[in-house]
Amino acid sequence: HEEQEELYFLHSGRVAIKFGDGTSHELEPGGLAWVDASTVRRLKNLSDSEDAVYVIVGAKDGYVGRDGRQPEGETHR
Question: What pLDDT shows up at residue 7?
């Protein structure tokens, strides 16, 4: 994103949020993660048998539209 920050709330399951700098952060049910707009990230479900249910809330002075973009050299999977 160019402007929109995001807050992730994990309702159930387990996920890893992998960041563009190579680090990652795992969330368990009830976990929260705030991510700055310019931070490259990717979410991954850590279970092969359980769905991960999460909510993402974006904010930047109200709705900013779709300001997301793929990092250079990345393709959508």
Answer: 92
Decide: 2 and 67 in contact? Cβ < 8 Å: yes
41 within 8 A of 7, measured Cβ to Cβ: no
**Structure tokens that stand for 16 in this block:** 């890893």
Closest listed residue to residue 19, CA positions, set 3, 38, 47, 45: 38
**Spacing of C-alpha 74 from chain mean position:** 16
The torsion defined by the Cα of 47, 70, 57 and 6, in degrees rounded to 10, comes to: 100
pLDDT digits (tens, 9 = 90+) for 4-60: 888 999 999 999 999 989 999 999 999 999 998 888 889 999 999 999 999 998 876
| pTM summary value | 0.75
Backbone angles phi, psi at 38, to 5 degrees: -85, -5
